[in-house]
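Figure caption, in words: inputs first, then the predicted bound structure.
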Amino acid sequence: MKAKLAAIGIAALLVAGPAAAEGPSRDHLLGLPPVPVPADNPMTPAKVELGEKLFSDTRFSSTREVSCATCHEAGKAFTDSPRRVS
Ligand code: HEC
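Bound structure (heme C present):
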């Protein structure tokens, strides 16, 4: 369940970006096809906010020291990290 929520969280981040829960899609900026959003589970600002929180939540790691954001730095397009290897 937690992994599913985290996946939803990063999907929300990738779809909407940290600051834009609504408004025009940014998919074209990433060069990605539109992410499908189920009609019975629409994207909302609350879900995007939850995704942002989960992405930085260290409680998902066994040591409670690592979050998704530890390796996926938003300032580096989520692609880089200060570490040499994963
Ligand atoms: C310890 C570092 C680390 C942490 C923590 C981490 N990731 Fe990653 N992640 C990576 C690395 C390295 C890759 C690239 C793996 C590869 O290409 O084989 C990756 C790849 C990904 C990808 C695929 C990106 C692509 O281009 O296909 C997604 C999505 C992703 N991570 C999401 C997450 C989420 C969500 C979390 C938190 C639940 C998370 N990651 C936590 C290191 C990390």
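The first helix runs from residue 2 to 16.
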